[in-house]
Amino acid sequence: MPLFDYSFLSKILPKAKIKKGFRKAKKSYLNRVRLATSLFFFGMGFCFATWASRIPDIKSALQLSEAALGTLLFAMPIGQLFAMPFSGKVVTRFGSRTITLWGLILYAACLPLIGLATEKWQLAVGLFLFGLFGNFCNIAVNTQGVYTQQLFDKPIIGSFHGSWSLAGFCGALTGLLMLALELSVFQHFVVAFAFVLIIIATNQKFMIKAQSKHEAEKSTYSFWKNPDKNLLLLGVICFCGMASEGIMFDWSGVYFKEIIKAPGALVVLGYTTFMISMASGRFLSDFLVARYGARKVLIISGLVISTGLYTAVLLPYIIPCTIAFMLVGFGVSNVVPIIFNVAGNSKTVPTGIALTIVTSISFLGFLMGPPLIGYIAELTSLKHSFAIIGIFGVLVSLLVWRLKVIK
């Protein structure tokens, strides 16, 4: 059953300006809705990549040690965790469109605030707010993605997450351009803020406004009073996928440097190929789901994650390890889009709250995975830690195989 009544489309479709038939006008409008949703995902990813691209400059400007920077960076996940208990209810109460607009504006506005930081506590406050508004933005934008998917007969949600990954490349390249132009961190962040405002201004009228009575009736749902087993398992699957993803973000370069002994600039080869593979996989995800079904794609994706990690452990050489990291990237690319779509279409829990539950569990994987690698590596070795984390891919396949809500 659809999440809401689509009759609102007949009221907002352009009439006088379009001289073609209603069906073509409708298709044209829905494609524009899809583009708008993609651009909001892009804007969210661009904000994160913009911040990440200037971390070294902020570290130097504030004269931070590695330990001090690591401590301050915890302010962002703390902000996200602070928002998690109530972000889903806020999205359900006020609507994903409203929270998407305000969430992305405030998320982007945190960039200049961070750029103005001259003291450690100021940076901590900026990062806390960045994480706080980022959580609201994440839940609301993903809810919009689920709603937009409901308007199409074919899978499209993977392309939204692909837009987020693409924004990562664009944000990094923009960072290099700003460095070449010798713009300060604050100036760079103001430009990024203005760019995101343009995205919002040109696409806000195409965001989905409707909310069904069914959603409103479920808005008082409490996971603690009435836990949903399916959502819990979906969260665990996403936990395994995002833990593997987080490990690649933080440890792929270290692995290439210390285990592969890659020379010079080739140290970044593993991370780069992982990112390219993950972004490409997300754009291919919709085609694969339409062709083979979400269940088969996820089962295979889990096995691909494990295959990639164990290949990197057993064949610690530059070419096999590059291919291995590409496999991991392709495997993790399908987990988040598919799981979020399944969770968002829950028949018992509101979309915003369902996504908050799954996101909360999966985010722990993204947060805990990289430190876990460090602790295991300290006790044994980095190769052994990658081998242990390789189990996560197998767990993804096994849990998907047992979970009947994934078709």
- N-to-C CA distance: 15 Å
Biggest pleated sheet:
none
Q: What proportion strand?
A: under 5%
Q: What value does the average pLDDT take?
A: 82
Number of helices: 18
Number of strands: 0
Inertia-based shape: globular
**What is the string of SSEs from the N terminus onward?**
HHHHHHHHHHHHHHHHHH
Structural category is mainly alpha
Helix content: over 70%
Low-confidence parts: 1-23
* Spatial extent as radius of gyration: 21 Å
Overview of this structure, please?
The chain has helices spanning 9-12, 22-53, 55-61, 66-73, 75-94, 96-115, 120-150, 157-180, 185-203, 213-217, 229-258, 269-292, 294-314, 318-333, 335-344, 351-379, 382-389, 391-402. It is an all-alpha fold and 407 residues long. Helix 11 (229-258) packs parallel to helix 16 (351-379) and helix 13 runs antiparallel to helix 17 (382-389). Mean pLDDT is 82; it is low at 1-23.
Q: Which descriptors apply to this entry?
A:
mainly alpha
Tell me briefly what this model is.
With 407 residues, the chain is mainly alpha-helical. The protein is 79% helix and 0% strand.
Topology:
Blueprint: H1 9-12, H2 22-53, H3 55-61, H4 66-73, H5 75-94, H6 96-115, H7 120-150, H8 157-180, H9 185-203, H10 213-217, H11 229-258, H12 269-292, H13 294-314, H14 318-333, H15 335-344, H16 351-379, H17 382-389, H18 391-402
Helix pairs in contact: 2-6, 2-7, 2-8, 2-9, 5-6, 5-7, 5-16, 6-7, 6-9, 7-16, 8-12, 8-15, 11-12, 11-14, 11-15, 11-16, 11-18, 12-13, 12-14, 13-14, 13-17, 13-18, 15-16, 16-17
